[in-house]
Amino acid sequence: MSLTSGEVAALAGQATGFVPATTDVHIAPHTDDDPYRWGSASWQVRFVPEGGGSVSLVVSADGSAAEALARMLDQLSEYGPEQGALWGQAIPACPGHRHAARVEVDGGEVVLVCPDTQEPMLRVQPVGAEPPSR
Ligand SMILES: [Zn+2]
User: Fold this and answer.
1) What is the pLDDT of residues 15-43, one digit of tens each?
2) Distance, CA 119 to ligand 1 centroid (Å)?
3) Separation of CA 130 and ligand 1 centre (Å)
């Protein structure tokens, strides 16, 4: 199973839901692909939150939807504008807390884990993914 550009776009849209500002997403084929990975596609995904700054990462078609979403959220946690609407905001926010949650993958889901209590705070089903079989 591999991701399509449409799925990557949908996951990126889902990731922007964790950014507390209107966020544009720009997706382009990644032109700097590793030559040892023939046949696999990847995309450069760039998030541009309103208020300045941007975060970008490369998402490979090889991974699962959950892995791709987790990497996006993890990268968004690096977003730290010196100023602007998102200054001081934790991304992704730990529900009920002021800090950011740790992003983990559990099967087909992304789990936001509280770094203080180590408790899973929120389970996120990637868009377009099959419901997990338990
Ligand atoms: Zn917490």
Assistant:
1) 999 998 899 999 998 866 565 555 558 89
2) 8
3) 28
CB 124 within 8 A of CB 112: yes
Is the omega angle on the peptide bond into residue 92 within 30 degrees of 0, that is, cis? yes
Q: How far is the CA of 94 from the centre of ligand 1 (A)?
A: 5
Q: In this structure, is the dihedral angle defined by the CA atoms of residues 70, 75, 77 and 83, taken in order, positive or negative? A: negative
pTM: 0.87
| Residue among 5, 27, 29, 19 at smallest CA distance from 53 | 19
Interval between CA 123 and ligand 1 midpoint (Å): 14
**Domain range summary for the chain, segments of one domain joined by +:** 5-91
Q: How far apart are CA 51 and CA 40, in angstroms?
A: 34
Looking at the domain that runs over 5-91, which CATH code has it been given? Answer: 3.30.160
